[in-house]
Structures are given as structure tokens and as C-alpha cells.
Please model this.
Amino acid sequence: MRARSDPAGNLANGTLHHRIRADLEGKILSGEWPPGHRVPFEYELMAGYDCSRMTVNKVLSGLAAAGLIERRRRAGSFVRRPQFQSAVLQIHDIKAEISGRDQAYEYELLSQRRRKANAGDREALAVGPQVGILALRCRHFADRRPFALEERLINLAAIPAGETIDFRTEPPGTWLLGHVPWTEAEHHISAAEADAEMAHRLEVVKGSACLVVRRRTWRAGETVTVVRLIFPGPSYHLVARFTPSQR
Amino acid sequence: MRARSDPAGNLANGTLHHRIRADLEGKILSGEWPPGHRVPFEYELMAGYDCSRMTVNKVLSGLAAAGLIERRRRAGSFVRRPQFQSAVLQIHDIKAEISGRDQAYEYELLSQRRRKANAGDREALAVGPQVGILALRCRHFADRRPFALEERLINLAAIPAGETIDFRTEPPGTWLLGHVPWTEAEHHISAAEADAEMAHRLEVVKGSACLVVRRRTWRAGETVTVVRLIFPGPSYHLVARFTPSQR
DNA sequence: CCGAGGGTTTTGTCTATACATAAGCGCCGC
DNA sequence: GCGGCGCTTATGTATAGACAAAACCCTCGG
Model:
């Protein structure tokens, strides 16, 4: 094996490919290598860092997977222009979110009905007729004040176990989160004015602004559940923290 | 080299590690391997797929990077419980978003001021005093109707080039998106009631519900820009589509 | 009973090598 | 000039082997 220890000793933390990765990311993020700039070829990096090709290949593949560079055979690797589209986001389970803030979490099941999918359900869940669905309505409380109103449909054809769970004690979102894997989800986030019932349930005045989040979740092409969460007015805000790993 | 061709010929698409990856992902997502289940050891997979350890290692590392499994030395690899936290999201540039819907996009710069950071700026951008900032206010239109109101602060210490750009023609968001790389962003999404000025600018009645998105963007620990986007009421909704690649 | 130490197992990293594949480049003949 | 063929080059994939590091496990000594 060749000598790889950095004689100057600077930046000697982490493993070799971590250091190389950090190096290259630094050059890209600092703007030293602007979008379109050609990253050195693998054999050049290999010579520069005095390591094998597999090692630089791993780093470059990682950067490509993270969307920072684009690789083209025969041509080389190029810095991609930054793209907001797609990034890593965090959305928490409501129960965990409230508990995490050291507030008292409470939960109330308003209604639970099992039925064959009606026209509205079929549209929302994209299922055929005669499919069993579970319709739930519930409220979440933080420190005894209404935090959110939840209206949920669960596709029992996809989640037969849903029928056997006691949703009087465990919120459906929490249960699903922990037990059902998913492959895709879609959020529609909008603002709406509270109608009479929403206002009553959330203990706000009618017409006040509410944040409405509608989420549809799929597993392998099949709609698993659709939920509408209504948060009272300016008191709540959704926090989403991103890191750019566009794909 | 050993015989690797699949005699039955099934699932022979893609490369070896793609097939292995798809196989394992399938078992996890289908629930065949529930959360907590121990994935076969590398040497077992190696024997099962008749390939080298580097190949299965690449696959398992990828699954770990994607957050589907967790790897522990000496113990093995385990299926992680599904987590909503963090997933890939798409948010578009406003200009691109409107144009993409085949609506006419228009843009109006309301005001642009260059100043030393005042107390409010310093808090919002987390910069010291005496730092130059650019304060912008503008409106976006879709099909001649107000689509969003934008209030933006740009940290000129981080983006000196910001001073030389003509934001009367190009929206600041679009310019930044194409020219400034970022390492982290945070969104606060909430609902608010329109005050007199917002109502006037967005051509809605005072007190109506608006969707407010506040985004802070960092590059290498330094706040680059803070923007507040205000969308009029129920007419607009933010769409976020996810795939689970939690990290 | 408890804590220290050593052995074992599994993942983590790295090397050197090999062949496959895609795509740009230039040469050649027409 | 120009279309096609083949050479070259860079990446993509895969192998076999090696050592390192972490962490569980068991045993031994007090």
C-alpha cells in the first residue's frame, strides 16, 4: 500500500472517501466550481489523492446520486446547476410533534364508520366500488386546546388490518406511520376560511383562516389512505427543513 | 468468472446490483420483511446471489443511505420503521410553476432598497450590523391576476453579485435559483388573514385567508436570503410530492 | 455478583484488476 | 462535403483479497 497519510496533516478527519467527498462538495458549494464546470476525471483525482479508482468512483457516484454533479460517459462529470426541485423535507407525526414540544397531547375520536366506497370515496382513493373503506374523524389537542381536526379515509383493501385496530386510543396517523410502509405521498397545502362546523370543532370564530393539509399516500401504486388535516389559523405553522438532494 | 446468467431468465433486466436492490426493496416495501427484521448478512446475500461482497455491500450501503435499513456492526442490517420525517419534495420556482401551467406569467418589482442591516434584518438573516442587505418587494401575476406577494431580504455579504442584478426584469427567486448554490433551506408554512395592504396588493377582501410561506436559505452555515411569499386564499395550494428517502 | 479482557463476527474501507458500454472524434471513401 | 466506421476515452460494473473498527459474547479473576 502506498503512503496516504497527509504530510501536512490538515483535514485528516474521517475516512479517505469522506475527505474527498467533502473536498469536492466544498468546491461546488463555494462556487469555485460553477455549474457546468468539468470535475477532474477519475484518473486525475486518483492521482491527486493517491488512491484507487474504486474510491474516487464511489465519491463521484455519491455526488451524482445526490444530484450535485452529472456524469456522462466519455465526456466526464459536470457540476449541475442548483435546483430547488426536490429536497429532503421533514414532517412529523402529530402526536410526536406535540409531545416533542413538551405539550400535553390528547386525542379524541369523533366518529368511525366502515362502509363500501361511495362515489366520493372512490374518487378520493381511486378505488373501485364494493371496496371496504374506513372513514374516521378525530381531533388532536395540545395542552387541552384543539390543535387539529382530522378527516381520514383508509382503504381496507390495501390495509385489511385497519379494521381490527382500536382507533379510540391510538390516532390513525400514528398507527399507520408505524405499521404501513409507503412508496409515495402527495401533499396539498392551502389556506381556507373556517366554516361553522370547523370553527366549532377548533374553537375559533367562523371565517377565520385555517391551514389545510391534504395528504394522499400510496403503496406500490395503490392508494392507502387520504387525510385532511385542518389547523386553526396563524397559531400553527408547518415547518419544513430541507437539504438539497435532488433526484 | 462464475455463471451469473439467470437460467430461468426472470427479472433479468438491469445490472446485477440493480436487481438485488429491487429485490430487497420489494421485500421491505411489501411488508414481507417488516420493520425490525434482520436483512441477511452480506456473506449470505453473496452466496444467495452468487456475487462478490463488494456488490452486495454497494446495495446495502445504498439502502442505508436511502434510509430503508439501518446497519450495525457485528449485529447486522435491520429494516427501519417507515418514517414520514424527511422525504423528497418538489417545490418549483414561481415563474416556472406558472409558465408550466400554461398561464401568462408577469412580474412587478414594487420596491428595491439597499441598506445596512437594521435590527429586524439582523434577526431574520442572522448577520452582524454593518452588513449590506438588499430588501425587495414584488408581485407575481398569473393570467393578469395577482398570484403572490413576495418580500425578500438578500445578504449581500454572502451574495455580492446580488447588487449588480436588475431585478426589475428578473424575479429575485428565479435569479437566485439559477445562480446561487445552497446547502439548507427551511420553510414555515402558515395561514394568515389578509391585512389592509396585503388585501390591496392581492386584490382580495381584507381578512380573507392567505397562505404564507417563509423560507430561509443557507449556504455553508451563512444565511443567504429570507423570503416571505403570500398567496391569496383558497385559490392557491402548495403541492408537495414525496418518495420515502429519509435520512 | 460484577467488571475487565480477549476472541469472534459483521460491517467499513480500500486496493488492483478486468471487461463492458457509451459517446465523442477523426479518418476514409465516395 | 458528408455519411459511416472504427478507435479512443471515460465511466459503469464486477471480482477477489486484505485489513480496520466496532460491538456483542463469553470467560476468567476478584
Remarks:
- Confidence is low (pLDDT under 50) at residues 1-12 of chain B.
- The domain at 94-235 of chain B is CATH 3.40.1410.10 (Chorismate lyase).
